[in-house]
Amino acid sequence: MRLFSLLAAATTALFASPSFAGSPIAGVEIDTIRPDRYLAKSHECVTVDPTVRFQPVRHIGIRPISSGIGVECTFYRDPHCHSDNDPDHPDSYTLHEGSYSFKRRFLVGGFKCVEPDSGHEFL
């Protein structure tokens, strides 16, 4: 019985992602009039500092906390991470981990990050 418990715990640890425990999955840097850094948990809306919310974003950097996982973040104008879903006037933009520079006006009020589906299936 004890061996089964140990095996079950080891299997869960093998397939568990950092977000499983509510840990941050990404570090996000948003550079406007100053660089601001945030830690993002999976599916949690992170509100951008109100003093830079209406400043154009120059650069965004997204880095996974753990190596070997992918991360994508959706950035919203709304600080509560809501979108109107209007295809003619998009108010959200999704980026994968990496570094991005912006030449056109791009405003961020909040963002959410997730790990894309890794394809692991439990048998």
From TrEMBL:
The keyword Signal applies. Residues 1-21 form the signal peptide. Keywords: Signal. This is AA1-like domain-containing protein.
